């Protein structure tokens, strides 16, 4: 399918969708990057939250380590409240840290997860250390090593941070918090060894070395913190970790180191050492908490900032997309609505307006006057190309209607010619009949009289053809009578007007009459049906006519032959044309009689329908229903049962010079050829007719119902 075959709606959508898709792709990349950055900051904040739990656990273990070391050095006195309290605090902090397993899962970092599980496992092993420390033979250095190992893993966990973090402010703040945690651990280790030395008076060489190394590391870390790029961390440490308790703590440290270097007893008050160390650690913990809170807030601010930018980007993208769609919808509407209106108008013109206008023009006696309001312009008033197409379509519509007007005028002219020729022919036929009438009146020879009657019959056929021409031209016949015609005379006149009249047999006629205004047309209608029945049946067969009155005074006339029948499809088409006759066209040439019957039936609201019995009974049955408004029922027949013949059936009349041949052919009613006899009638009574209908229910039904049976194959 080429691009030129695409619907306009698809083309418009394509024009907008392609650049919009490109813009959305770029926006999607930007949104994805922003979402990834937000994820980094979310993980950083979660890591800091885990660091805070680790710092609380480390502080509690540092306090417990100091208390445990002093308790063992003092000979494990019973009911040491300080140790009992520190152990409870450590267990609470450890439990709080273990509850962060869900947070560790959300962080999803492998190293962080591994360190978390190490801390949990080592924290469980501290319970064994606590129980074993009560044994007098337990090595006093083991608790220090065990607690220090757990605290070391906690410090390593605090150093973990998302490598995807690129913000310098966040990295430096986190680094400051980690430095402070290490400073606090070094100070806590010094305090532990110092307390043990104060209780025992001396330290082992390895313990002295460990205390000295902790002091060196502490100095280096404090120096590194002083050069930190984050002034707030340095300022917080310098302004918080100060005062007399801190100075006293470091003085005790220096005094102990001086005495140990001189190989002298340390000689410090254990309680004084414990208090000063605890106060120093408390101040450092305050700074650590402050720095972690600051780092968490900074990471949260970055996260919120990225999310705000992401939301603004999404809003801008969605707003831009909606704006583009609104503009596209407006442009598409401005193009498609006129096109759809033009298309709808074109279809309406083709299917409704133009046929209706042509029908009005064809029926209007002055087609040129009907042209003035036949064309309604398309309701597209724009000045663009679509409006130009609409005006062009109006022009085409007008040309089509003008062509219809020309055709109507031509048809009227041809119709006038047909009417003029038909009336001329009728006048000549009437003159010819007058001549034949005079010859018949003066002729005594039977053979010559038979020839004159045959010539008279042929002239009658010619006059019926002239009447057909008038009917086809839409002109009513001038031959109308004000008197009522008995039904027998109407049927007899119809029989006398066909070529094969001897083959027609009438079985029943009701005691009723037809109003003069419709009598001639009914004669014409029945004659066409009889001519059709005799023409399409074998010459040796008989065409049967029955007539009866229904309960509502409707006259039912039934004509049945024994011909070749009609197929079901063609029968349905013929009945449709009889019900709703169409205009004359080329297809009417072989069915002219059918069209004449349909026009005459519509003129007087007479119902005509054909039926075929198919294999059950060959031939076609025609049913004519004349409405009660055209029927006059005689007073003496009112009380008789309907659908029966008269008591005295019609009999063949003797041949006379002025009317009836010896074969009983009825002459035309209303002129010199009137007669009341019907050819081929048999002397039958009402009971015989009724019995015949009872033995042939199919025909009785056709007089009262619209049943169609069988099929055949013949033109109408």
Automatic annotation (TrEMBL):
InterPro entries xref list: 2C_sensor_his_kinase (IPR050980), HAMP_dom (IPR003660), HATPase_C_sf (IPR036890), HATPase_dom (IPR003594), Nitrate/nitrite_sensing (IPR013587)
Main location: membrane
Keyword Ubl conjugation: no
Secretion signal span: none
Name the UniProt record assigns to this protein: histidine kinase
Residue spans crossing the bilayer: 306-332
Domain (Histidine kinase/HSP90-like ATPase) ranges: 517-630
Reactions catalysed: ATP + protein L-histidine = ADP + protein N-phospho-L-histidine
EC primary class: transferase
Composition-biased stretches (Basic and acidic residues): 636-649
Protein localization: Membrane
Top-level taxonomic group: Bacteria
Positions of region (Disordered): 636-683, 696-716
The entry's keywords: ATP-binding, Kinase, Membrane, Nucleotide-binding, Phosphoprotein, Transferase, Transmembrane, Transmembrane helix, Two-component regulatory system
Organism name: Amycolatopsis pigmentata
ATP-binding recorded as keyword: yes
EC code: 2.7.13.3
Cited SUPFAM superfamilies: ATPase domain of HSP90 chaperone/DNA topoisomerase II/histidine kinase (SSF55874)
């Amino acid at each position: 399918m080429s691009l030129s075959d695409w619907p306009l709606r698809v083309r418009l959508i394509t024009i907008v969708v392609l650049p919009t898709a490109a813009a959305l792709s770029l926006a999607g990349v930007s949104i994805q990057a922003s979402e990834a950055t937000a994820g980094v900051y979310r993980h950083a904040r979660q890591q800091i939250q885990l660091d805070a739990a680790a710092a609380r656990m480390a502080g509690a273990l540092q306090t417990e380590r100091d208390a445990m070391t002093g308790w063992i050095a003092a000979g494990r006195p019973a009911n040491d409240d300080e140790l009992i309290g520190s152990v409870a605090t450590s267990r609470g902090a450890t439990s709080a840290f273990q509850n962060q397993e869900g947070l560790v899962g959300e962080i999803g970092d492998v190293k962080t997860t591994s360190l978390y599980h190490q801390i949990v496992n080592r924290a469980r092993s501290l319970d064994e250390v606590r129980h074993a420390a009560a044994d007098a033979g337990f090595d006093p250095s083991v608790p220090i090593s065990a607690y220090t190992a757990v605290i070391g893993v906690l410090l390593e966990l605090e150093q973990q941070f998302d490598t995807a973090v690129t913000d310098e402010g966040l990295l430096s703040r986190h680094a400051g918090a980690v430095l402070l945690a290490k400073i606090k651990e070094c100070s806590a280790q010094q305090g532990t060894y110092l307390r043990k030395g104060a209780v025992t008076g001396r330290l082992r060489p390895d313990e002295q070395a460990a205390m000295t190394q902790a002091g060196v590391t502490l100095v280096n870390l404090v120096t590194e913190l002083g050069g930190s790029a984050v002034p707030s961390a340095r300022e917080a440490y310098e302004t918080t970790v100060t005062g007399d308790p801190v100075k006293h703590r470091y003085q005790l440290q220096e005094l102990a180191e001086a005495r140990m270097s001189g190989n002298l007893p340390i000689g410090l008050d254990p309680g004084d050492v414990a208090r000063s160390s605890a106060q120093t650690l408390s101040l450092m913990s305050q700074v650590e908490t402050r720095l972690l809170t600051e780092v968490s807030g900074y990471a949260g601010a970055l996260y919120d900032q990225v999310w705000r930018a992401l939301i603004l980007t999404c809003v801008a993208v969605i707003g831009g997309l909606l704006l583009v769609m609104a503009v596209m919808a407006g442009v598409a509407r401005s193009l498609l609505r006129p096109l759809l209106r033009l298309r709808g108008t074109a279809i309406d013109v083709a299917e409704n307006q133009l046929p209706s206008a042509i029908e009005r023009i064809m029926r209007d006696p002055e087609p040129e006057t009907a042209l003035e309001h036949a064309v309604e312009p398309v309701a597209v008033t724009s000045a663009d190309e679509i409006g130009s197409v609409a005006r062009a379509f109006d022009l085409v519509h007008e040309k089509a209607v003008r062509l219809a007007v020309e055709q109507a005028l031509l048809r009227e002219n041809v119709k006038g010619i047909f009417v003029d020729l038909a009336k001329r022919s009728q006048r000549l036929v009437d003159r010819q009949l007058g001549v034949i009438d005079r010859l018949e009146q003066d002729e005594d020879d039977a053979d010559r009289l038979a020839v004159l009657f045959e010539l008279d019959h042929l002239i009658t056929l010619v006059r019926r053809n002239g009447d057909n021409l008038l009917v086809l031209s839409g002109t009513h016949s001038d031959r109308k009578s004000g008197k009522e015609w008995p039904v027998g005379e109407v049927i007899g006149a119809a029989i006398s007007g066909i070529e094969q009249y001897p083959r027609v047999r009438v079985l029943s006629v009701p005691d009723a009459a037809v109003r003069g205004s419709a009598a001639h047309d009914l004669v014409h209608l029945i004659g066409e049906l009889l001519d059709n029945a005799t023409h399409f049946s074998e010459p040796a067969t008989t065409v049967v006519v029955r007539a009866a009155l229904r309960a509502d005074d409707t006259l039912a006339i039934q004509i049945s032959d024994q011909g070749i029948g009609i197929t079901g499809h063609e029968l349905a088409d013929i009945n449709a044309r009889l019900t709703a006759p169409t205009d004359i066209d080329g297809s009417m040439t072989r069915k002219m009689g059918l069209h004449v019957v349909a026009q005459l039936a519509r003129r007087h609201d007479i119902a005509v329908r054909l039926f075929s019995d198919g294999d059950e009974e060959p031939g076609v049955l025609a049913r004519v229903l004349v409405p009660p408004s055209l029927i006059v029922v005689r007073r003496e027949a009112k009380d008789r049962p309907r659908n029966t013949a008269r008591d005295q059936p019609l009999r063949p009349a003797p041949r006379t010079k002025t009317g009836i041949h010896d074969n009983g052919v009825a002459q035309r009613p209303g002129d010199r050829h009137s007669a009341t006899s019907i050819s081929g009638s048999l002397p039958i009574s009402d009971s015989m007719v009724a019995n015949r209908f009872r033995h042939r229910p199919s025909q009785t039904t056709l007089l009262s119902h619209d049943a169609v049976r069988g099929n055949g194959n013949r033109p109408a």
